[in-house]
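Notebook B, p. 112. Complex prediction, attempt 2.
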Amino acid sequence: MAMRYLTSKLAQQIDEELMGSVGAFSIDQLMELAGLACAQTLATVYSKDKYPRVLVCCGPGNQGGDGLVAARHLGMFGYKPTIWMPKPGSKDIYKRLKAQCDNMKIQTLEPSNDTQSLKSALASSDVILDAIFGFSFKPPVRAPFDAALPLIANSGLPIVSVDVPSGWNVDEGKVDALALDPDVLISLTAPKEGVRAFKGRHFLGGRFVPKTMEEKLQLNLPEYPGFSQIVELPRADDAQKL
Amino acid sequence: MAMRYLTSKLAQQIDEELMGSVGAFSIDQLMELAGLACAQTLATVYSKDKYPRVLVCCGPGNQGGDGLVAARHLGMFGYKPTIWMPKPGSKDIYKRLKAQCDNMKIQTLEPSNDTQSLKSALASSDVILDAIFGFSFKPPVRAPFDAALPLIANSGLPIVSVDVPSGWNVDEGKVDALALDPDVLISLTAPKEGVRAFKGRHFLGGRFVPKTMEEKLQLNLPEYPGFSQIVELPRADDAQKL
């Protein structure tokens, strides 16, 4: 049975059920495991010796929260993360996640609507973690992200995107001119409909889906190896050959 | 510089600081990472093919919470965990962690003051995760744990203890006749004074201590490999030889 790709609507439903009666998880728990999986994926592909300086780009929603958690874990792994979060979310959890990064002495660029600080940061980074937009993204891309995405795309740096590459339509894929073209993707819980044709290295994280939910929704998730929190998926090209 | 072994008092202080201004962590986050480290340690030593049935013994405090998180992750890894938690803690977090296990269809023995159900469960288990008492333990061992510890000790099953083997004095070690004699120990954050002479395989987990805290308290934690959440420590005998 083929792995199921989630529509944005189903992804939203699963998220609600995981934090509701089906899962009973707190957002703290889910974000911790999701962010850890993001950090472990980046560390799997880009070693801290060759790519120590990670620019973690965070959006205003839950995806930005995953980015903050990932930044903290990357710091624990020995990377030198810097956070760019121009529109910090107002929820209590983002404030706490940000305080945890502050306590780890992880630098955050000043929130701002212009992209000057982003430009400088890109010039002194080795790899980007794109945690800007996730499965709740609805076009169009708004300021300052409309100016930021081309800067990130043209930086020449490798990009690891979280869940859905920023600028992509969650259901339809890479249809917008502003869409990023990441090298690596880490899907969370299950991959989204829009990333079916993604050509780079593709990982899955979020090893917390109850079996009953997986079966009811026929997610057909791949088997994670051992006690790993991430699993690499076959490349789109290879999967078609099978 | 040698790794620091924590007194019960210092362990308590660190726990408070991690959840206070020094760390700003929520208990959900710390328990999630601690419990994951416990599950990964057990999975490192006891394969799910040879030791599928894990009896997770949980105390009434935060250590029991770590056990519930570990049970859930063990279930995700493909083990068949069963929970024995005769005195469930009253805090909201234990109820949520228990509900998460229920949602994963992990069996919990009925809470009870007698040890009949524990006896049966021991007879159909392959390995024990001992999450009964942690660094807040103060003797004496109270019912039903006074009757349970000898049953666990005499079961002949391998034991993985969390943080401090149950029945051990946190500062003085294995001085009580009821103390367990585990094969494996997973210390959390930093090892406690009482386990200095522990002779089995010894792991460290809880990779969330801010560098500033580590330096201020001169913890001299060992380096974790790569992006692992656990690190194995040299055996007490080997360390003395060095």
